[in-house]
From TrEMBL:
Keywords: Glycosyltransferase, Transferase
GO terms for biological process, alphabetical: carbohydrate metabolic process
Organism lineage: Bacteria, Pseudomonadati, Bacteroidota, Sphingobacteriia, Sphingobacteriales
Protein source organism: Pedobacter nutrimenti
GO CC, one annotated term: membrane
Protein name: Glycosyl transferase family 11
């Protein structure tokens, strides 16, 4: 049996669930469980709240989660080593994704024993063949609040270009050199110039968790800031971004999924060279997206 761990924020949970759907098409016994440790840092199990995807049998899931937690213990080696030997004897193993999100074809075969899959699984190579099933699973409920209706209407009436500026915790000491240093002001300026050269009369819609930085660095006449969705309503930004005709992304799974769900046949998606700073991630972006290089 294969068990996919669902964790972190909405974009990560979507990648993990898409990976689960592909694994389930290979082995019908495949399950997913939610890693409850993520709740303290994010908005909980968003797949259920946003897309109506149920979390499953809680008793069974808690038992499986306990096994996963034991498998993932890295401290206390005097305890973990004999336990891991016991699990290995019964063919129970933890499989972690490559740190650079490289696609691993070997994972697309039925597993023997019990396998727990822990990672982001952001490469569409894992689930591209299941696109229609995924689009159906990730179908947003239409937002009926006035601010989002007005934003949606304007997005549909213009040559709309989303700009997702992901900062927030990317800027702290732990994350800056890994994630925060990727999408600089120069990246966004070059991406805006790239879109402006091939899209007639573009209008830019900014989505960000750092609006003051946007106002200080990216303001233009043909720009609107969308700041009505916060906290547990943040998913509505993904819905709006996915309806823009063109997308300028940050190195973020949130805007990754918004662009991937975009069904505009003439869509242009611009992404930064790195998803993780100075790490080659050759499989994380679909080949049809435009990767910007040579910006400071």
């Amino acid at each position: 049996m294969d068990i996919v761990i669902i964790c972190n924020g909405l974009g990560n949970q979507m990648s993990q669930y898409a990976f689960f759907l592909k694994k389930k098409s290979i082995n019908k016994k495949t399950r997913f469980i939610y890693d409850r440790r993520s709740s303290s840092q994010h908005n909980g199990f968003e797949l259920e709240r946003v897309f109506g995807i149920p979390s499953g049998n809680m008793f069974v899931n808690r038992l499986l989660w306990l096994v996963f937690r034991i498998l993932s213990i890295e401290r206390f080696p005097h305890f973990s080593r004999p336990v891991l030997k016991f699990f290995n004897f019964f063919n129970i193993k933890l499989i972690k994704e490559s740190p650079n999100y490289d696609y691993d074809e070997n994972l697309m075969t039925p597993s023997k024993g019990l396998r727990f899959y822990y990672g982001g699984w952001h490469s569409e190579k894992y689930f591209k063949s299941n696109r229609e099933e995924i689009l159906k699973a990730f179908c947003f409920e239409y937002s009926d609040d006035i601010s989002n209706i007005e934003a949606f209407t304007k997005i549909k009436e213009t040559n709309s270009v989303s700009i997702h500026v992901r900062r927030g915790d990317y800027m702290n000491e732990t994350n800056f050199n890994v994630f925060g240093a990727v999408c600089t002001k120069d990246y966004f300026k070059k991406a805006i110039s790239e879109i402006s050269s091939c899209v007639e009369d573009p209008h830019f819609y900014i989505f960000s968790n750092d609006i003051p930085w946007v106002k200080d660095n990216l303001m233009m006449d043909n720009m609107s800031i969308i700041d009505c969705n916060k906290g547990k309503d943040s998913w509505k930004d993904m819905y709006l971004i996915s309806n823009c005709k063109y997308n300028i992304n940050s190195n973020s799974s949130f805007s990754w999924w918004a662009a991937w769900l975009n069904v505009n046949e003439n869509n242009i998606v611009i992404v930064p060279k790195f998803f993780i700073n100075n790490v080659e991630t050759k499989d994380v972006y679909p080949k049809r997206w435009r990767i910007l290089t040579n910006y400071s």
